[in-house]
Specification:
- With 278 residues, the chain is of the alpha/beta class.
- The protein has 2 domains: 132 residues, Leucine Dehydrogenase, chain A, domain 1 (Rossmann fold, 3-Layer(aba) Sandwich), CATH 3.40.50; 129 residues, Rossmann fold (3-Layer(aba) Sandwich), CATH 3.40.50.
- 28% of the residues lie in helices and 20% in strands.
- The protein has 8 helices and 12 strands.
- Helix 5 links the parallel strand 8 and strand 9.
- The longest helix has 17 residues.
- The structure holds NADP nicotinamide-adenine-dinucleotide phosphate.
- The site of NADP nicotinamide-adenine-dinucleotide phosphate (NAP) has 24 residues, from helix 4, helix 5 and helix 8.
C-alpha cells in the first residue's frame, strides 16, 4: 500500500483527504491519505522518520514557504514562485523495496540546503524530497478558458503565497498585472488607488485575499464595484462560499465570475500526476 498525506496547521476539514480517499476507493488504488497537523515545521523530520513509507505529501498553510529548506530539490516553477504545495518522496530502487517504483527517475531542478540535522538524516538514508507547485497548474487551467482578447491587464488583490503563484501564471500568459495591498510596497498600489480610469484597462481582477471566506461571508475587497462592467472577469481563489460577496457584486454589474473550486480540483489532480509520473 502507498501512503500519502497533508501537512499544515491547523488541519480541520480537509478537501485533499476527502478527494484522495474517494479517488483511491473509486479507482481501486491501494493507497491511503492521512492528515499530519504539525504545530511547527521543525517537527517535519520527525514526521518523516515516524512515517518511513510516505510517497507523497501535500503542503498547506502555513508551511508552503517554510517547507523549502527541508527539501533536497525544487522543480523550476516552485523555485521561481518560492512556494511548494506538493512533495514527492523518492527512494532509489533498492532490492526488495516496494516503496517507490519510480525511484530511478532523473532528478532535475535546484538543490536546496536540507534543514535536517545529521542525526535526523540517517533515518532517511538516500531519501530525496522534491518540491513542486501544483496550485499554479490548477489556476492556469481554470483561468485560460475564460480569457478574452481584451483581458490584457490584471489587478491581483493580496500579496501572500497565492498571489505569487497567480503573478507567475500571468507573466507566463503575458498579462500585465499590478499588485494591490493594504500596505503597498514599491511597485504596488493600495485599494484607494483603484478608480474608474484604472478599471477601464484592468479588466481581470483576481482576489487572492481570504476576505469573504466562510464563515465571514459578508465582507469583500474594497474596490469600486460600481465601475465594473461586462468586460470584467472576476476570479476569486476562495471556494467556500461558492459565490463570495466579491463575485456577487461583480456579477450584479454584468462581470464574468469564477470561484476557486476548479483550481482546487486541478491542483489535486496535478499533485497526483506528479506523484505518479513526476
Ligand atoms: P496569505 O498568505 O494569508 O495571503 C493573503 C494576502 O491577502 C495577505 O498577504 C494580505 O495582503 C491580504 N489580506 C489578508 N487578510 C486581509 C484582510 N483582512 N483584508 C485585506 N487583505 C487581506 O494567504 P494565501 O496562502 O496567499 O491564500 C490566499 C487565499 O487563497 C486563501 O483564501 C486561500 O484559501 C486561497 N487559496 C485557494 C486555492 C485554491 O485552490 N482555490 C489555492 C491556494 C490558496 P496585504 O497585507 O498585502 O494586503
Amino acid at each position: 500500500m502507498k501512503h500519502y498525506g497533508l501537512i499544515g496547521y491547523p488541519l480541520g476539514h480537509s478537501f485533499s483527504q476527502k478527494f484522495f480517499t474517494e479517488k483511491f476507493a473509486q479507482e481501486n488504488i491501494d493507497a491511503d491519505y492521512q492528515l499530519f497537523p504539525i504545530e511547527q515545521i521543525d517537527l517535519f523530520p520527525t514526521l518523516l522518520a515516524e512515517n518511513p513509507n510516505l510517497c507523497g505529501l501535500n503542503v498547506t498553510i502555513p508551511y508552503k514557504e517554510k517547507i523549502i529548506p527541508f527539501l533536497d530539490e525544487l522543480d523550476e516553477t516552485a523555485r521561481e514562485i518560492g512556494a511548494v504545495n506538493v512533495i514527492k518522496l523518492v527512494l532509489p530502487v533498492i532490492a526488495g523495496s516496494t516503496r517507490n517504483p519510480i525511484g530511478q527517475e532523473e532528478q532535475r531542478g535546484l538543490r536546496v540546503k536540507p534543514a535536517m540535522t545529521e542525526t535526523q538524516k540517517p533515518a532517511m538514508t538516500e531519501l530525496t524530497l522534491k518540491g513542486y507547485n501544483s496550485d499554479v497548474i490548477g489556476f492556469e487551467n481554470s483561468l485560460k478558458p475564460l480569457l478574452q482578447p481584451h483581458h490584457k491587464k490584471a489587478l491581483i488583490l493580496g500579496t501572500g503565497g497565492a498571489a505569487k503563484g497567480v503573478a507567475y501564471i500571468l507573466r507566463k500568459l503575458s498579462i500585465h498585472y499590478i499588485i494591490v495591498s493594504r500596505t503597498p510596497k514599491s511597485g504596488q498600489i493600495s485599494y484607494a488607488d483603484i478608480n474608474a480610469d484604472l478599471l477601464r484597462d484592468y479588466t481581470l481582477i483576481i482576489n487572492t485575499t481570504p476576505i469573504g471566506t466562510f464563515p465571514k461571508t459578508d465582507v469583500c475587497p474594497d474596490i469600486p464595484y460600481k465601475e465594473l462592467t461586462n468586460k470584467h472577469l472576476l476570479y476569486d481563489l476562495i471556494y467556500n462560499p461558492e459565490k463570495t460577496l466579491f463575485l456577487q457584486r461583480g456579477e450584479a454589474q454584468g462581470a464574468t465570475i469564477k470561484n476557486g473550486l476548479e483550481m482546487l480540483h486541478g491542483q489535486a489532480l496535478a499533485a497526483w500526476d506528479i506523484w505518479e509520473r513526476g
